[in-house]
Design the sequence.
Protein backbone atom coordinates (compact mmCIF):
# COMPACT_ATOMS: atom_id res chain seq x y z
CA UNK A 1 0.00 0.00 0.00
CA UNK A 2 1.24 3.48 -0.83
CA UNK A 3 0.96 6.31 1.69
CA UNK A 4 -2.38 7.50 0.30
CA UNK A 5 -3.72 3.95 -0.12
CA UNK A 6 -5.39 3.03 3.15
CA UNK A 7 -6.66 -0.27 4.49
CA UNK A 8 -10.45 -0.49 4.40
CA UNK A 9 -12.38 -2.83 6.69
CA UNK A 10 -16.11 -3.53 6.88
CA UNK A 11 -16.26 -5.67 9.98
CA UNK A 12 -20.06 -5.89 10.23
CA UNK A 13 -21.86 -6.54 13.53
CA UNK A 14 -19.82 -7.60 16.52
CA UNK A 15 -19.99 -7.42 20.30
CA UNK A 16 -18.76 -4.37 22.18
CA UNK A 17 -15.40 -5.78 23.33
CA UNK A 18 -14.58 -6.98 19.81
CA UNK A 19 -15.36 -3.59 18.31
CA UNK A 20 -13.10 -1.74 20.76
CA UNK A 21 -10.35 -4.37 20.46
CA UNK A 22 -10.28 -4.16 16.67
CA UNK A 23 -9.83 -0.39 16.82
CA UNK A 24 -6.88 -0.94 19.16
CA UNK A 25 -5.45 -3.68 16.93
CA UNK A 26 -5.52 -1.30 13.96
CA UNK A 27 -3.57 1.23 16.02
CA UNK A 28 -0.91 -1.43 16.64
CA UNK A 29 -0.74 -2.34 12.96
CA UNK A 30 -0.35 1.28 11.86
CA UNK A 31 2.29 1.84 14.56
CA UNK A 32 4.29 -1.17 13.33
CA UNK A 33 4.03 0.02 9.72
CA UNK A 34 2.14 -3.11 8.61
CA UNK A 35 -0.49 -0.81 7.13
CA UNK A 36 -0.06 2.95 6.52
CA UNK A 37 -3.52 3.94 7.81
CA UNK A 38 -7.00 2.47 8.07
CA UNK A 39 -10.68 3.23 7.78
CA UNK A 40 -13.16 0.87 9.36
CA UNK A 41 -16.97 0.87 9.19
CA UNK A 42 -18.92 -1.35 11.57
CA UNK A 43 -22.05 -2.06 13.62
CA UNK A 44 -22.98 -3.50 17.01
CA UNK A 45 -24.51 -6.95 17.51
CA UNK A 46 -26.31 -5.76 20.66
CA UNK A 47 -27.20 -2.17 21.55
CA UNK A 48 -24.24 -0.93 23.58
CA UNK A 49 -23.54 1.99 25.84
CA UNK A 50 -19.93 3.05 25.41
CA UNK A 51 -18.51 5.53 27.88
CA UNK A 52 -15.49 7.78 27.57
CA UNK A 53 -12.13 6.83 29.02
CA UNK A 54 -12.39 9.43 31.80
CA UNK A 55 -16.05 9.01 32.73
CA UNK A 56 -17.01 7.67 36.16
CA UNK A 57 -19.07 4.55 35.52
CA UNK A 58 -20.87 4.19 38.86
CA UNK A 59 -21.49 7.91 39.27
CA UNK A 60 -22.79 8.70 35.79
CA UNK A 61 -24.31 5.47 34.46
CA UNK A 62 -27.50 3.71 35.55
CA UNK A 63 -25.94 0.26 35.40
CA UNK A 64 -29.11 -1.52 36.55
CA UNK A 65 -31.11 0.06 33.72
CA UNK A 66 -28.48 -0.92 31.15
CA UNK A 67 -28.70 -4.52 32.37
CA UNK A 68 -32.50 -4.38 32.45
CA UNK A 69 -32.58 -3.46 28.76
CA UNK A 70 -30.09 -6.22 27.95
CA UNK A 71 -27.58 -3.76 26.53
CA UNK A 72 -23.82 -4.16 26.61
CA UNK A 73 -21.56 -1.73 28.42
CA UNK A 74 -17.95 -0.90 27.49
CA UNK A 75 -15.37 1.78 28.22
CA UNK A 76 -13.70 3.30 25.16
CA UNK A 77 -10.01 4.15 24.84
CA UNK A 78 -11.12 7.60 23.66
CA UNK A 79 -12.40 10.45 25.77
CA UNK A 80 -15.75 12.15 25.41
CA UNK A 81 -19.16 11.29 26.82
CA UNK A 82 -21.54 8.32 26.70
CA UNK A 83 -22.95 7.00 23.42
CA UNK A 84 -25.75 4.47 22.89
CA UNK A 85 -24.73 2.48 19.82
CA UNK A 86 -27.86 1.03 18.29
CA UNK A 87 -29.37 2.25 15.03
CA UNK A 88 -26.18 3.60 13.54
CA UNK A 89 -23.07 3.05 11.46
CA UNK A 90 -19.86 3.49 13.41
CA UNK A 91 -16.58 4.56 11.86
CA UNK A 92 -12.97 4.56 12.96
CA UNK A 93 -9.98 6.23 11.33
CA UNK A 94 -6.43 5.26 12.33
CA UNK A 95 -3.29 7.00 11.05
CA UNK A 96 0.14 8.20 12.21
CA UNK A 97 0.45 11.64 13.79
CA UNK A 98 3.14 12.25 11.17
CA UNK A 99 0.79 11.57 8.25
CA UNK A 100 1.41 14.21 5.51
CA UNK A 101 -0.80 17.26 5.98
CA UNK A 102 -2.15 16.13 9.37
CA UNK A 103 -2.07 19.04 11.85
CA UNK A 104 -0.47 18.59 15.27
CA UNK A 105 -3.51 20.21 16.91
CA UNK A 106 -6.19 17.76 18.02
CA UNK A 107 -8.87 20.28 17.05
CA UNK A 108 -7.52 20.80 13.54
CA UNK A 109 -6.87 17.09 12.94
CA UNK A 110 -10.47 16.46 13.99
CA UNK A 111 -11.59 18.87 11.27
CA UNK A 112 -9.44 17.16 8.62
CA UNK A 113 -10.61 13.64 9.50
CA UNK A 114 -14.24 14.75 9.80
CA UNK A 115 -14.11 16.05 6.24
CA UNK A 116 -14.71 12.41 5.28
CA UNK A 117 -17.90 12.41 7.35
CA UNK A 118 -19.00 15.66 5.75
CA UNK A 119 -18.66 14.17 2.26
CA UNK A 120 -20.47 11.02 3.39
CA UNK A 121 -23.51 12.99 4.53
CA UNK A 122 -23.47 14.93 1.28
CA UNK A 123 -23.46 11.61 -0.59
CA UNK A 124 -26.79 10.93 1.13
CA UNK A 125 -28.16 14.22 -0.15
CA UNK A 126 -27.93 16.00 3.21
CA UNK A 127 -26.73 19.59 3.40
CA UNK A 128 -24.12 19.05 6.11
CA UNK A 129 -21.54 21.60 7.18
CA UNK A 130 -19.17 22.40 10.03
CA UNK A 131 -20.42 24.66 12.79
CA UNK A 132 -17.37 26.53 14.04
CA UNK A 133 -17.50 28.56 17.28
CA UNK A 134 -16.39 32.12 16.57
CA UNK A 135 -17.49 34.39 19.43
CA UNK A 136 -16.17 34.29 23.00
CA UNK A 137 -19.58 33.10 24.16
CA UNK A 138 -19.59 30.21 21.67
CA UNK A 139 -16.07 29.17 22.64
CA UNK A 140 -16.95 29.32 26.33
CA UNK A 141 -19.90 26.99 25.63
CA UNK A 142 -17.40 24.28 24.67
CA UNK A 143 -16.45 23.93 28.35
CA UNK A 144 -20.09 23.54 29.40
CA UNK A 145 -20.54 19.78 29.81
CA UNK A 146 -24.25 19.64 30.45
CA UNK A 147 -24.62 15.92 30.86
CA UNK A 148 -22.95 12.56 30.38
CA UNK A 149 -24.47 12.18 26.90
CA UNK A 150 -22.15 12.61 23.93
CA UNK A 151 -24.55 14.39 21.57
CA UNK A 152 -25.53 16.78 24.34
CA UNK A 153 -21.97 18.07 24.67
CA UNK A 154 -20.71 20.83 22.35
CA UNK A 155 -17.39 20.46 20.50
CA UNK A 156 -15.26 22.17 17.92
CA UNK A 157 -16.16 21.65 14.26
CA UNK A 158 -19.50 19.98 14.88
CA UNK A 159 -21.15 18.46 11.84
CA UNK A 160 -24.64 19.87 11.60
CA UNK A 161 -27.64 19.53 9.31
CA UNK A 162 -30.49 22.00 9.63
CA UNK A 163 -28.79 23.46 12.68
CA UNK A 164 -28.58 20.20 14.63
CA UNK A 165 -25.63 17.92 15.42
CA UNK A 166 -25.65 14.77 13.27
CA UNK A 167 -22.41 12.98 14.21
CA UNK A 168 -20.56 12.41 17.47
CA UNK A 169 -16.83 11.62 17.49
CA UNK A 170 -13.97 11.10 19.93
CA UNK A 171 -10.22 10.89 19.42
CA UNK A 172 -7.18 9.47 21.19
CA UNK A 173 -3.47 9.73 20.49
CA UNK A 174 -1.19 6.95 21.70
CA UNK A 175 2.51 6.49 20.92
CA UNK A 176 2.39 8.51 17.71
CA UNK A 177 -0.93 7.15 16.43
CA UNK A 178 -4.25 8.97 16.04
CA UNK A 179 -7.46 7.00 16.36
CA UNK A 180 -10.77 8.78 15.87
CA UNK A 181 -14.07 6.95 15.94
CA UNK A 182 -17.68 7.96 16.19
CA UNK A 183 -21.37 7.42 15.54
CA UNK A 184 -23.34 8.16 12.40
CA UNK A 185 -26.91 8.07 13.68
CA UNK A 186 -29.54 6.50 11.46
CA UNK A 187 -32.29 6.71 14.10
CA UNK A 188 -32.25 7.44 17.82
CA UNK A 189 -34.51 6.46 20.72
CA UNK A 190 -34.08 9.48 22.98
CA UNK A 191 -35.99 7.94 25.91
CA UNK A 192 -33.80 4.84 25.96
CA UNK A 193 -30.67 6.95 25.57
CA UNK A 194 -31.40 9.12 28.59
CA UNK A 195 -32.51 6.13 30.66
CA UNK A 196 -28.87 4.96 30.61
CA UNK A 197 -27.61 7.88 32.69
CA UNK A 198 -28.13 9.15 36.21
CA UNK A 199 -29.52 12.61 36.95
CA UNK A 200 -30.12 14.59 40.12
CA UNK A 201 -33.87 14.36 39.56
CA UNK A 202 -36.49 13.58 36.91
CA UNK A 203 -37.13 17.25 36.18
CA UNK A 204 -33.49 17.86 35.25
CA UNK A 205 -33.43 14.68 33.17
CA UNK A 206 -36.47 15.81 31.17
CA UNK A 207 -34.94 19.25 30.70
CA UNK A 208 -31.77 17.70 29.26
CA UNK A 209 -33.83 15.37 27.08
CA UNK A 210 -35.75 18.24 25.52
CA UNK A 211 -32.53 20.20 24.98
CA UNK A 212 -31.05 17.13 23.27
CA UNK A 213 -33.96 16.93 20.83
CA UNK A 214 -33.32 20.53 19.82
CA UNK A 215 -29.59 20.00 19.46
CA UNK A 216 -29.14 16.56 17.88
CA UNK A 217 -30.73 14.74 14.97
CA UNK A 218 -30.51 11.38 13.16
CA UNK A 219 -30.39 10.85 9.40
CA UNK A 220 -33.87 9.37 9.03
CA UNK A 221 -35.41 12.19 11.05
CA UNK A 222 -34.53 14.78 8.42
CA UNK A 223 -33.98 12.92 5.17
CA UNK A 224 -36.77 12.77 2.60
CA UNK A 225 -35.62 9.21 1.91
CA UNK A 226 -35.66 6.36 4.43
CA UNK A 227 -32.14 4.93 4.58
CA UNK A 228 -31.04 1.50 5.75
CA UNK A 229 -27.70 1.04 7.47
CA UNK A 230 -26.51 -0.93 4.43
CA UNK A 231 -26.88 2.21 2.31
CA UNK A 232 -24.54 4.12 4.62
CA UNK A 233 -21.50 1.94 3.95
CA UNK A 234 -20.80 3.02 0.34
CA UNK A 235 -21.78 6.62 1.05
CA UNK A 236 -19.23 6.99 3.84
CA UNK A 237 -16.54 4.83 2.23
CA UNK A 238 -16.61 7.18 -0.76
CA UNK A 239 -16.95 10.15 1.58
CA UNK A 240 -13.72 9.34 3.40
CA UNK A 241 -11.92 8.64 0.14
CA UNK A 242 -12.90 12.05 -1.21
CA UNK A 243 -12.61 13.97 2.04
CA UNK A 244 -9.14 12.62 2.87
CA UNK A 245 -7.98 12.42 -0.78
CA UNK A 246 -7.11 8.74 -0.56
CA UNK A 247 -7.82 5.41 -2.18
CA UNK A 248 -8.65 2.30 -0.17
CA UNK A 249 -7.88 -1.39 -0.45
CA UNK A 250 -9.87 -4.06 1.40
CA UNK A 251 -7.99 -5.55 4.33
CA UNK A 252 -8.68 -9.05 5.62
CA UNK A 253 -7.53 -9.95 9.11
CA UNK A 254 -4.78 -12.57 9.18
CA UNK A 255 -4.64 -15.53 11.57
CA UNK A 256 -2.07 -13.64 13.63
CA UNK A 257 -4.43 -10.65 13.69
CA UNK A 258 -7.24 -12.84 14.99
CA UNK A 259 -5.05 -14.23 17.79
CA UNK A 260 -3.91 -10.76 18.84
CA UNK A 261 -7.47 -9.45 18.60
CA UNK A 262 -8.71 -12.02 21.11
CA UNK A 263 -5.90 -11.05 23.50
CA UNK A 264 -6.88 -7.37 23.35
CA UNK A 265 -10.57 -8.24 23.56
CA UNK A 266 -10.11 -9.68 27.04
CA UNK A 267 -9.22 -6.22 28.32
CA UNK A 268 -12.48 -4.71 27.08
CA UNK A 269 -14.45 -7.59 28.60
CA UNK A 270 -12.93 -7.11 32.04
CA UNK A 271 -14.45 -5.27 35.00
CA UNK A 272 -10.96 -3.99 35.77
CA UNK A 273 -11.07 -1.93 32.56
CA UNK A 274 -14.74 -1.06 32.35
CA UNK A 275 -15.21 -0.11 36.02
CA UNK A 276 -11.79 1.44 36.51
CA UNK A 277 -13.39 4.80 37.39
Sequence:
Amino acid sequence: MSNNSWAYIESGKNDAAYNMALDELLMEKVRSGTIPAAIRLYEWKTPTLSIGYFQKMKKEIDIDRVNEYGYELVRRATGGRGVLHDKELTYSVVLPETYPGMPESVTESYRIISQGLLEGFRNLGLDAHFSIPRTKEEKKELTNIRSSVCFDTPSWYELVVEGRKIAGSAQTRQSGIIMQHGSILLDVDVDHLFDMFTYANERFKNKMKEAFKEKAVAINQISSKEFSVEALYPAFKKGFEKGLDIVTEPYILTKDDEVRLLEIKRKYESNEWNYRK
About this structure: The chain has eleven helices and twelve strands.
